[in-house]
């Protein structure tokens, strides 16, 4: 069994986090999954949602966009489009995005392709607000 679990959260722009952790929870495409040291290797798609890790008894959360996670017994590598730590989420921007999406949803019929895009935007804004602790 591995002694440490290394977590790396990588976006196209930056290395959002790199360090040892006690556990990781990821929003997998087939559902949320947790990783501890010594976990079986796997590759999973990541959906938009909350990725969190526990280190020294403290939980830290990120709002992540779609991507992939590679898990080995000693390392979790998460490659995602965006990753925002909960305490760095722009709450005002997320609220404006939520309001704009709600207005768009009210305008479009469910059959309209714009309706689905607005629905996804609303879900993302609500998730960002929830992760930031503002909903």
CATH fold group of the largest domain = ATP Synthase, domain 1
Shape: elongated
* Spans of at least 5 consecutive residues with low confidence: none
Radius of gyration: 16 Å
Number of helical segments with 4 or more residues: 2
Beta-strand content bin: 35-45%
Please give a structural write-up.
With 135 residues, the protein is α+β, with helices and mostly antiparallel strands. It has two domains: 5-87, Sandwich (ATP Synthase, domain 1), CATH 2.60.15.10; 91-131. It has helices spanning 91-107, 113-131, and strands spanning 5-10, 15-21, 23-28, 31-36, 42-46, 49-55, 58-64, 67-71, 75-80, 83-85. It has a five-stranded mixed sheet, with no helix packed on it. Strand 6 (49-55) and strand 7 (58-64) form a beta hairpin. Helix 1 (91-107) runs antiparallel to helix 2. The radius of gyration is 16 Å and the shape is elongated. The chain starts with a strand and ends with a helix.
Topology record:
Blueprint: E1 5-10, E2 15-21, E3 23-28, E4 31-36, E5 42-46, E6 49-55, E7 58-64, E8 67-71, E9 75-80, E10 83-85, H1 91-107, H2 113-131
Parallel strand pairs: 1-9
Antiparallel strand pairs: 1-2, 3-4, 3-6, 5-8, 6-7, 7-10, 8-9
Task: Based on the model shown, name its key terms.
135 residues, alpha+beta, ATP Synthase, domain 1
Compact overview of the structure:
The chain has two domains: 5-87, ATP Synthase, domain 1 (Sandwich); 91-131. The protein has two helices and ten strands.
